[in-house]
Structure formats: C-alpha cells, structure tokens
Amino acid sequence: MIADRFSSLLASRAEAYRPAFIEHSHAGKAEQWLFTPALVGFYFSFRAAIVLIVVRVLLFEPQTGAATALAADFALLLIVAFQAMGPATHSFRWMLRQPSFRWVIAYLIFAGCSLVWSATVSKPASFLYWCGVAADVAIVVLMLRIGQVEAVANSLMRGFIWSTCVLALIAWMMPTQADLRLGDMEFFNTNQIGNLCAFAILLAQYLISRKDGKWAIPILFLTVTLVRSLSKTTLVAFLLTEGILLFRDRSLSRRTKSLIVVAVLLTAVAFWGLYESYYDVYTTVGTQAETLTGRTAIWAFAANAAIAKPWFGNGFDALWKVMPPFGADQFEARHAENELLQQFFAYGAVGVVMLFGLYGSLYLRIRQLSHQPMKMILLTILLFIVIRGTAEAEPFDLLLPLWAIMLISSIVATSLNAESKGQNGASNLDVSAACIASSSTRRSVI
Length: 446
Description:
single chain; mainly alpha; globular
C-alpha cells in the first residue's frame, strides 16, 4: 500500500512538471499536435525569408536580418530549455545509443574546432553561425527529451509545412527575376524556394504514411510552386525520387498512381510555355549553359583549395568573401555547390568521413524498419538529398539539416523499439498458447 501511494505521488509530480508544449496539445486520433514543436517547425522554414523581409520591406541592412534570425533561434532555445525542465521521457543516454546522434555531435564539435584554423573573414560572425546550427540541434534534442517522439516530430513537421506554404505564397507575390524564376537573387533565391517546397512535400507524405491529417491541398500548392520556381537541380531530384517512390510504393492503388501521373502531365503542359522561355534565356543570355549557372568555376576553385588542405580542410565558413567574385554580375559564392565537395573543402578528409557517417548510419537504421510506407518515404527523403547534393550545398549545415537527422533518427529508433516489443509480445503469446495446449493434452490423456 505504501509503495502504491509512493508511485502515485511520483506520477502526480511528473505530471505537474509536464512542459507547456505538452499541455497545449490537441488530442485526436491522428490530429495530435503540440504548440512549441509546431512553432519551432514554423521557424525552421520561415527563417529563410527573414533577411528578405528585413531588407526589402523594413529597409534595414542584411546584417540586421541575419542577426534577427539568430536572435529568434536563441530565443526559441531558451523557451524550449525552460519548458524541458523536469523528468525526462527520453534520456540523453537513449539518444547517444543512436549512431546518427553520435555523428551529429562529432560533426558539431569538429566544425566548431575548425574555427581555429578557418580562413573565414570574421571569426566572431562565423562563431555565431555555428552557434545557430548547434542551437537547432539543441532545440530538437530538448523537445525529444521531454516529449513523445511521434507527437514532437509530427507537430514540428506540421509547422514546417504550413510555414512553407506561407513562404510559397510570398514567392508568388514577389516580382519575377530577370531570368523568369521566382524569388530574390540575393536574399531568397529560387533554389531556397524549391528546396523548401520539395522538403515540405516529402514531410507531408511522411505524415500521410502515418495517417496524420489530410495534406492533398498543401502538397498540390507546394508542387505547383516548386514547378514554377524553375529550380533545376531541385526539380530533377524531386521528379526522380518521386518517380521511384510512385513505382515502389505498394500502399497506393493503381487508380491513385494514374491520377498522380495525369496531374503531373497537366502541370507540365500548363508551364510548358514558361519553360521554353526560360530555356531561351538560359542558353542565349550570358554563359549560364556553359558554366552550369556558374557552378564550374565554383567547383574548380573549391577543389583546388580543398586539395591544398586535404586532411582538415579550410574550416567552417571559409568560402564566403574568400573566393573572388566572378561573372558579369560579380557573383560571390557562399558554398561549393556540391555537398561532398563542400565538406571536403571545409573539413578535408575528416569532413568526407563525417558526411558518409551521418547519411550512412541513418540509411542503415531506416533499412531495418519493417513498416513499408514509412520506410519508403524516409528512404525517399534521403535519396532526394543525395541527388540534390550533386549540384547544391549549404554553407553552415548539411542539405539534410543536423536537426532533421536527429529527428528522423529518433523516429526510426522509436519505431524499431515498438516493432521489437511487438515481436517479443507475439512470441510470448505463442509460448503461452503452446503451454496451454500442452497442458490440455496432458489432462485429456490422464
């Protein structure tokens, strides 16, 4: 009796310490969402346009926009840290058992240490950018520590998707660039728009695989925006991965697959004239076609600089303002336009090993899943990132952000744990049934 009272007292205290973002959840069969993770997901997407809004709308300097984005990131970290006080649902030890989490920590530590030898123009500014990447990971870790993995992940994805829809609407309202593409060349370019739309679509497909909400209209809107963005690399990666997913996904009926193919063809016909006009601009104005929109010069510079420092690289944020401007418009590259080359340039051979470790460990864990719809969409996300990485990169993070690797890794770990428990329960039931049958047989013989 005393033990029962003690356990009930502990349960009541744990309930009292339950964080605010769990109290704000809305219960439903497949509609549960948490306010703070949804807000974090909204910010993770919307911050791509913060500098644009601060510069073009509020007429401040770009540095003010970057500082605003970082300040919002740190403010969210403080909020989540305050809410995460109290008993943990998942300990840090549980997270450290995940290979991907260990790779994330190793990547962050090495990137931070590389500031010592980095050729960056401003080490204090680069350190703040590194802190921003670390803050993203810390936010997700703290939310997973105190909340249920599925609820946190689904809520964060919902916030990210709806935020991307807002950004897509902003992109449609912005003036068209000279080459007919969506976005602002300096502060919110077409590749950012296309990547956000594609990633949000993939997250929506994941939620559909978990039977969490109806996402047909957001997916349609984001797909049309992606096609209109004219982001070549993203479009190619998206079409290839979605084609593979459509071909291999057995959960979709033939009728649904046929409707998807018809919708794709109708969208292509609707934008055919725009693509013809863009092709004329791409092949006749400047040297975009010959240089793959300037990528060949960036690749050459980054490769030469990486070979000069092959083991530990040039350091975190070492390309911006270091690589000389090129082209008629004096374009300044922020990254190497290839993810493998970017990691080799920044962190040398160690960076290449870490890149394979991060994506490889996540791939191997996803392969262990038995739930086919979920397994297929997570592999599709990883394949999309790999294909897009052949001609894109990020200056501070990976194309699949470290926070997303941490989130997906936790989703997979939770699912594998649930599958393992289900198998153990089924085997125990089989053993019990066998014992009962054996006992009945003995009684009948007696």
